[in-house]
Amino acid sequence: MKICVIGTGYVGLVTGTCLADLGNQVICVDNNGEKIKMLKQGRMPIYEPGLAELVAKNVKAKRLSFTTKIKEGMDKSLVIFISVNTPPKSDGEADLSFVEKVTAEIAEHMREYKVIVEKSTVPVETGEKIIQTIKLHNVHKTDFDVVSNPEFLREGSAIKDTMHPDRIVLGVSSKRAEKVMRELYRPFKAPIIITDIKSSEIIKHASNSFLAMKISFANAVANICDRVGADVEKVAEGMGHDKRIGRSFLNAGVGFGGSCFPKDLAAFIYIAKKSGYDFEMLKAVQKINEQQKKILVQKVEEALWVLKHKTIGVLGLAFKPETDDLRFAPAIDIINTLQAEGASIRAYDPIAMTKARKILKNVQFGKNAYDTAKGCDVLVIITEWSEFRELDLGRIKKLLKTPIIVDGRNIFEPGKMRELGFVYKSIGRK
Ligand code: NAD
After folding, report:
1. Is 260 known to be catalytic?
2. Which own/partner contact pairs does 87-91 have at CB distance under 8 Å and 24+ positions apart?
3. What is the tens place of the pLDDT at every residue in 271-314?
């Protein structure tokens, strides 16, 4: 099948590459000329495990190409994916200006039947707006259908998630579009859930909000564990064996970040309010998440007493391991707060350093975890990269000025850390 993907970011590039790898002819479009130039030169604008190799393979096989021009991408394609960014406005509402712009342009270039797929995460009723906008700009009166096909991939395992999804959700309004989409997704061994467009749009926001709620629930339980001297890891294990609950997303820590959960949660609260419903439960999820970052700073303060003139080593900057994405990463807020208290920051991340240098000010970047720990008053773990789990802690202890570790992701065993002679503080554990 011939496919055009508009918006070549974390979602668009991975979706386009995976669909090409399954034998489709894919053209990825982006209006960021620098990104397209890099991709044409075989360089990746983002980090995602296995992506560079898969892009190279499919470019070589002439199944995958890149352009800055929507018209070029659309001319021969039947299915057009819209996967541009939908960032949050200050009140939580999703900014749909990129979706609107792309939709109008698609309409102007339509000459034959197209299936336009809403892949970006958008509020309920966006499908209707897309249809309305296409009708407005559809100068050639071409037939078209709009499909909602929310994306559930996780950065860091995006290729695996795309190739082996738990489910594929298709919000459709015609049998013709359903047939095209079923044909496209035929190679995937996943249940296909067919709904109307609005229900499909809500599935995405409800799913992400539910996962965010699980994280905040685990963090709230961790805060009780901290107070009464229980162990949140054991609590999560005990809860997680119940199949109705499940162990995933019950990890206590510094809270969630990234380009999806905070944005999608805020958008769902906004959508609910607009529909006349006050989603108080989700507001609490947001509040707990904000508190978690403060709790980590408090733990650093408890360990050091005064932060002014102290040097704090930070391990992990990306919002999660295996990505270079720093959008709404807890590390940014935490570092800003520590700096505001007068502390100096040394920091290291295995992959996100290039992006971090552009965002963080007055931070000294270490070459690796050991270089970062050198001379620090405390080492703070913010992202649970697996290489941090493997650290030679004896060496770290010698490099630190004082042997204090504040672990925002519970990656070390408290008993072992005490044995090694560390002052060790983690989240919700004795
Ligand atoms: P991104 O910022 O990485 O990529 C978006 C791309 O769209 C950018 O490269 C941008 O230049 C391009 N773009 C913007 N306007 C354009 C235009 N007029 N013409 C052509 N290209 C244009 O964003 P992302 O992380 O890939 O997310 C895209 C959407 O998918 C968002 O709605 C997001 O919420 C959703 N989503 C993201 C993830 C994720 O893990 N990143 C997962 C599921 C869903």
Report:
1. yes
2. 87/263, 88/262, 88/263, 88/266, 88/267, 91/270
3. 999 999 999 999 999 999 999 999 999 999 999 999 999 999 99
| 9 ligand 1 Cβ < 6 A | yes
Distance 200 CA to ligand 1 centre (A): 19
Q: Give the chain's domains with CATH numbers.
A: 2-195 (3.40.50.720), 210-425 (3.40.50.720)
Contact 66, 38 (CB under 8 A): no
Residue 349 Cβ contacting ligand 1 at under 6 Å? no
Work out the number of other CB atoms within 10 angstroms of the CB of residue 314: 29
Q: pLDDT tens across 66-94, in order?
A: 999 999 999 989 999 999 999 999 999 99
Q: How far is the CA of 429 from the centre of ligand 1 (A)?
A: 38
Q: What is the structure's pLDDT at 430?
A: 76
Q: Which ligand 1 atom is at minimum distance from the Cα of 35?
A: 9
The mean of the pLDDT values for the chain is 97
